[in-house]
Amino acid sequence: MEAEPGFAHSIDQLKAGVGAVDALVAGISHVEAAETVRSVGYGGWPNMIGEMECDGAVMDGTTREVGTVGAVPGTLHVAALAREVMRRLPHVMLTGQGARRFADEIGFNTQDMLFPDSKRVWSKKLDMVLSDEERAAFPDIPLVPLSNVITDPERVRDTTVFLGMDQTGGAGVATSTSGWAWKYPGRLGDSPIPGAGFYADSRFGAVACTHTGEMTMRCNTAHSVIEGLKFGLSLDAAVERAAEDLLDLGTGFLGEVVIHAFDTKNNHRVVSMNGEVPVSYWYWQDGMSAPEKRQSDQL
Ligand code: ASP
């Protein structure tokens, strides 16, 4: 079975001795370009007004340096762009037009990001929920009421998160997503938010979350797992402790959350909360002849 696009590229880079962040970005760039991946990059979904706004991030667990970009228009390779924020600027995060301006300045092409099938599905959804009058005036209509009937986090599955450790023991993480389908313009999920959607610390491990960012941003979930490891919990206990905080939420938008984590003692854990079916993920470690597709635990 062929693994997730780009997974083999990251493995090749790690085998060749490339550092974790570069190896992960090399792989994730293939996911961003793949039309078949319907939650990330070109195959992803637009916001409520039909514009693609992507989020991406990287974190180097050795230096704890971070680069993130959020709600970036017209940009395919947002994880690579986030890496450039980390390397070239005295900042951690750029959003919207500022991120796009930075992309222009360093040679990332503007790209038409709206995949024809995504446009078709978005347009059909608007036809279903808007009156003829609202449809004619769109997008110059109040979007707040529409937000509650149209936003569709269930359409988004498996924001791509790549976690890895390089030959020097450096842990890293990279994320990339188009976020919730039909989200309110400017909405950021957890994928560009350090501590919520991702965290890496080469002393302890690396973590990334997918699905309902509106929950992990309230619980600082990725860092919460690392904090558990720091205070001596096993990986299982650290993940379950972070999951308890999510499961305790009783208000706001509640949905599925998946936590992906590994520690420096050769353990990894992927758990899914509030989901109906386990989530698949790809796993490889040195010594395995090929990556394996595995299933999350359900909490
Ligand atoms: N966590 C992402 C977000 O909130 C979406 C996802 O992973 O499905 O934007």
Main sheet summary: 5 strands, mixed
SS elements, strand count: 12
| Secondary-structure class | alpha+beta
Q: Ions, cofactors, ligands: which are bound?
A: aspartic acid
* Ends apart, CA distance between termini: 27 Å
Using the coordinates above, name the CATH class. Answer: Alpha Beta
Strand residue percentage = 15-25%
Tally of contiguous helical segments: 10
CATH topology: Glutamine Phosphoribosylpyrophosphate, subunit 1, domain 1
* CATH architecture descriptor text: 4-Layer Sandwich
The global form is globular
Strand/helix succession: HHEEHEHHHHEEEEHHHEEEEE
From the alpha carbons, calculate the radius of gyration and give it in angstroms. 19 Å
The helix fraction, in percent, is 25-40%
**Overall average residue pLDDT:** 93
What order do the strands of the largest sheet run in, or round the barrel if closed? 3-2-1-5-4
Unreliable stretches: none
Number of domains: 1
State the CATH superfamily name.
Answer: (Glycosyl)asparaginase
EC number: 3.5.1.1
InterPro entries: Ntn_hydrolases_N, Peptidase_T2
Organism: Candidatus Rhodobacter oscarellae
Protein name: L-asparaginase
